[in-house]
Structure formats: C-alpha cells, structure tokens
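Listing S7. Sequence submitted for prediction.
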Amino acid sequence: AMMIPTLSTYSYTPEGRQYCIALPASLQSNPPQPTDPGVTVVEKEEMIVFVATIGGFPDYAEEADKLRNRLDSESRGEEVDFTSYMRLGYQSPYVLKNRQTDIMYKRKDIA
C-alpha cells in the first residue's frame, strides 16, 4: 500500500527532484533505516508556503508557473523562494476521481 500524503520537490537547480513520504507517528521517533543507499530519512524543516490547490492530473510544472506568475502579479515575488516548487499529493495514483494536489513555493526566510 502506498503511504499518503506524498511530497515531491522539483528543483530548478542541478539537485533535480526529491520525493518524500510521511512516516506514521508511531515510526517517527525511531524510523526504520533504508537498505537502499539512494534513500535517506530526513526531517523536513518547518516552513511557510504559498499554495495553489488543483484537481485532476495537471501538468505540475505548468501549474507551478501559473502560481509563480500570480505571486509576481500580486507583488509577492520578493517573498518567495523560486529555486524549486513542491507538489503535495493526497491520493494514490490509482484514484481517478476527486483528486486534490497542492502546488507550493516556500516563503523566503525574512529576518
């Protein structure tokens, strides 16, 4: 069974893409260690994000561009880290109806 939600980060830098799943609360204090060297366990930092919620099976890069354009048009671009965007999926890929996905950009740390 696939764990949900899933978080994918798409970077505009050489790092590329990162795919994350949330561990159930029962495993968070002592997470299982991966056997594949390409898999790591990391704790995501707390963040503030700008979000657009979409349905269906969209083109994520296109939706990220739409959100970026909207933030720029609302004069919010200076507050946003546009080096990558995130996609948060709430359903298994096998669910065909009533899908919801969030496209997100992190807010820059403002001191």
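Caption to Listing S7: primary sequence and predicted structure tokens for the chain studied. The two ends are 42 Å apart (CA to CA). Residues 7 and 68 are 19 Å apart (CA to CA).
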